[in-house]
């Protein structure tokens, strides 16, 4: 039987339990600090993403444009001239050829009664159209363009009424900044596109035609296919923004005939020799300048 002391102790314990406050869940822990949302970090992230997007918007099109130009201006090796295959363009369907005498110059006020449109050989102005990869926004005088062909350039002419903006851009990729090439609109052209090199022409319907690249690979600076080998295409005095204008009017009786009757042939423009006709491959004597400079 429990003693009186034990009973008293048990009562005291129960009384103490009743008098002490009950402990509720969570009580006795340190109050938690309210978590703040990282607005500054989020703002920085958004700014970085926006900057990346802006750079991509600005740089990706330029990169793609440059890639398109590089691809357009890479010659097709199988179409590049060699000693064994001096004129690969003979295998391009649609190319027409014509032999013309070289070195026949007219003045800046004379016209030539060209027998082809656009012309691709014959008498021409003593000044050549700048052909250092020049894309002309305006039609240019044929007498200047033909002289560029005599220097080994390829001239892309297009009818502005038959080639849309996308086609013009695609054609310009073959030319932009590329030596011995030029491009200009040609009002009234009987085909959308015409490619010219000295003594060669190819007319086409579309800027997507694979023969454009074949023609350029075969004939641009082909030393076997043009008279004035070694001549420069640079002509700083030929204003690309305001060139001598194309004249669409019919030729009058005063126009110089295609045979160059009455003109004196410039011997410095034959064979690439500076004043000495017949020197092969554009060779020059020491101290001389390339023909046409």
From TrEMBL:
Signal peptide: none annotated. The keyword Transmembrane applies. Residues 242-251 have a biased composition (Pro residues). Residues 1-31, 239-293 are annotated as: Disordered. Residues 270-281 have a biased composition (Gly residues). The chain crosses the membrane at residues 37-60. Keywords: Membrane, Transmembrane, Transmembrane helix. It comes from the Bacteria. Residues 282-293 have a biased composition (Low complexity). This is DUF3105 domain-containing protein. It comes from Nocardia rhizosphaerihabitans.
């Amino acid at each position: 039987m429990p003693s009186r002391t034990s009973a008293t102790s048990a009562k005291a314990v129960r009384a103490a339990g009743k008098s002490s406050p009950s402990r509720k869940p969570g009580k006795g822990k340190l109050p938690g600090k309210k978590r703040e949302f990282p607005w500054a970090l989020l703002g920085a992230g958004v700014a970085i993403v926006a900057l990346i997007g802006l750079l991509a918007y600005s740089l990706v099109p330029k990169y793609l444009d440059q890639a398109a130009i590089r691809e357009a201006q890479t010659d097709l090796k199988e179409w590049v001239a060699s000693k064994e295959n001096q004129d690969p363009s003979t295998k391009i369907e649609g190319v027409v050829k014509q032999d013309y005498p070289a070195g026949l110059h007219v003045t800046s006020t004379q016209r030539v009664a060209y027998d082809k449109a656009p012309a691709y050989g014959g008498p021409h102005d003593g000044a050549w159209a700048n052909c250092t990869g020049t894309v002309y926004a305006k039609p240019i005088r044929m007498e200047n363009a033909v002289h560029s062909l005599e220097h080994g350039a390829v001239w892309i002419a297009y009818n502005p009424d038959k080639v849309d903006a996308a086609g013009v851009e695609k054609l310009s990729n073959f030319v932009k900044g590329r030596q011995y090439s030029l491009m200009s609109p040609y009002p009234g052209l009987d085909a959308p596109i015409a490619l010219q090199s000295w003594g060669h022409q190819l007319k086409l319907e579309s800027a997507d035609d694979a023969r454009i690249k074949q023609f350029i690979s075969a004939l641009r600076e082909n030393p076997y296919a043009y008279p004035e080998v070694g001549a420069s295409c640079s002509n700083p005095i030929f204003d690309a923004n305001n060139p001598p204008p194309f004249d669409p009017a019919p030729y009058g009786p005063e126009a110089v005939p295609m045979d160059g009757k009455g003109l004196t042939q410039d011997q410095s423009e034959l064979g690439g020799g500076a004043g000495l006709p017949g020197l092969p491959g554009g060779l020059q004597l020491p101290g001389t300048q390339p023909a046409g400079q």
